[in-house]
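User: Quick one: structure for sequence A, then sequence B.

Assistant: Sequence A:
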Amino acid sequence: MNNAPLSTTDHALSSDDSVARLEVLGGIARQLLDRCRAAGATQAEVSASQEHGLNVNVRMGSVETVESTRDRGIAVTVYFGQRKGSASTADLREESLSATVEQACAIARHTEDDEAAGLADAALMAREVREFDGWHPWALDADQAIDIALACEQAGRDADARIENSDGASVGSSASMSVYANSHGFIGAERSTQHTIGCALIAGRGDAMQRDGWYTTAIAADDLEAAAAVGRHAAERAASRLQPRSLPTGEVPVLFHSEVARSLIGHFLGAISGGALYRRASFLVDSVGTQVFPDWFDLQERPFLMRGFRSSSFDSEGVATRESPLVSAGVLQRYVLGSYSARKLGLQTTANAGGVHNLDVKANAGDFDSLVRGMGRGLLVTELMGQGVNAVTGDYSRGAAGFWVEDGQITFPVDGITIAGNLKKMLGAIEAVGTDVDPRSHIRSGSILVGKMTVAGE
């Protein structure tokens, strides 16, 4: 298979040199594969990447850090039959690349056979490598980034007299390029950008202080929220948390705001991922074809979204991605597998080596305000703390903060509580998903209402 490293049909080349850099990385990858074959490897794969970025942080009107980064790396994996060895380097000199191949081969010769080891099947390789409008470099220098961060923080500090302090504001921009190639003849190249503006502010003083913030992130700088709007939103959130109360222990409906709702989907993904399944360390072992969510719930993987955070024609093994359901009518349709975990389970890869691509959670309700009104009485969660999730049993217990809802209205802030349940029951008890999708993640979900959870407070 002879894929072009990159299609530029939909992208007029500008003054940036990303295409040329990708061609260089592709040439290095091909040379390394040739060396692996010459060393006797029966199969081999190479990943090559470059990334550069700029990050600035300011606090209370002063610059704290300015960081410019440039990273690169080459990773080589070889197979001698079903023995595997890997080595990596950041040095592109001839002697370093040669030593990297030698190290990978030496490791492989001293490892045991693994019946699941090897490249993904050649027939599954992507035959077309496309871009999905993911390359939008930001012509941003340090002075401009500092000005944006200062404006963001100042807008937040000016927005509310109760904002007494700041944890700072930040601006970041990064651009990455990568090539994956293997001895099946596959070579695929990708380039992507991501930009972020964030602010964290402190309201009140002394023991009554409350901290909160906001951020915006996007592939193209034009899609970011305005810096001043980010600061004002951070101020509003921090001030709204002043004078929080606890709650009496009991069972109530819990509405996970969209910015934390995706964590529930993340726990679900962990439970249906290959590593947990073949180790039988998941509460969803042997669950394909069973009802996990309510019968209206759908979860779709969409790897071809334009400007999607995880859009790609191929996974990290070169396997062609495809749009397909994870959950349909509440029933789990498949697991999330790369070729290694698939072989361990006696299944076929789902083109998810390296993780899932963009996920859409189907909404069955209205916007955020209608969800609050519909809940009537319960807890709105806007922040989760701790890692109290047992992936084997599904037991769930995390610190939380948010707001109490009474008669369909947000009434007062809540802090110092724990919410608990079991993920398997929680997923089945989802009553509503809103249309208020948080666009800052590849998991595209609105707020999620769980019918009943234990809230431990006073």
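Sequence B:
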Amino acid sequence: MADSVPVRCPTCRRENAFTPPTFPCACGAPLTMPVLRGGVPVEIQHRTWQSSWVEVRCESCGRLDEWPAPESACACGTVARVPVIPAPGPPAPETTPPGRAAHRYRSPTPPATLRPAFRPVTIRTARDCVTAAVQYLKWLGFTEVVRAPERSASGVDVRGRGLVAQVDPTTRPTRLREIETVWLNGLNDSALAVFFSLAGYAKDARSRADALHVPLFVMDLTGTPQPVNDAADELIRNGP
């Protein structure tokens, strides 16, 4: 497993422990994102697909490929892009050490509930965002989790037993009204309301979610949701 590195939030200056994600290269070797120690993270205010990918060269086979840029979520609601070391020139051929095990992305909050390793869904489209949320909620322990056939006026994207969830795949921070809408849906259905966002949350939206105890998650392009408030941490620890 990759070692965690300190990442300072560009908004609140809080230092967070960040574990660089690891992906399997086409050659079969694990490729850990080479985070630039001491680099300055940049807050993601306007997300674009192009800027969300970085070129990284595999140390084992020398293959240069594009991978999801590493992102760190802070408790203040800021989502920042973590800089990586620029890809060097092709290395000399080398043999992958036998028995080298593949790393897996570590959940930001180690769950107290015993679960198998989460298998993320790489996000390339808005539909992938919803799929990733469905998979993650199932992993947390919710049952009968399904994607809504078509988003209704209520804005609910995912339903399960005792659960409603909304997914915001846009490139702007999620707004206050959307948090209140999903909370009201949960209240009407006597269900837990959960929110997933690709671009983070506006400050007033984050404050209202904390007051209403709505778990908030942000998703990077690896498809692994990360908790951004206490309610989300609690959900990961204890499950439904």
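The chain has a mean pLDDT of 82. The first strand starts at residue 5 and ends at 8.

User: Thanks, that's what I needed.
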